[in-house]
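Data availability (excerpt). The following record was deposited with the supplementary files.
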Amino acid sequence: MDTVMERLALISGERSASGIMRWLGIKPSSIANWKRRGSVNFDPIIAGLLRHRVSLDWLFAPYEDLFYPTVGQLGELNESTPLYQQNQAMNLAIEAINRIDPVLERYNLPKTETNRQLMSETYFKKRGEALILSAALNQVAKALATAQPNEASQAD
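Predicted structure:
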């Protein structure tokens, strides 16, 4: 429950539990009931997030690479699904490279497998057009470690 409240505080800009509840459109007394029961009723939280157009992924699974089925995949369980998913994965990889290569060119970086792999890893951690801060910081640290391998070992 603490993790949920911390994330809700970030998105709502509210510091107090009662402020977060008001932002979500939930009675402030609800949080006391949840604490007493030891469980959270997520229905009003979900409704509040959707009212504010906040992704549920952001709250419930910020570090997960989730599967988003397309309309054509809904209810479709047949032999062509694995091939379709393979084609979709290839299309996503091509889309990523098409976004990554111009960035590498802009900074005069070689289009090496290592550079593309690091950039692709970062690209696929995105949520919409945003990237969670901790994921971004980890990716920057990886890039710095790759760019400065001798300096990193000297710091130890």
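Summary of structural features: Residues 34 and 79 are 45 Å apart (CA to CA).
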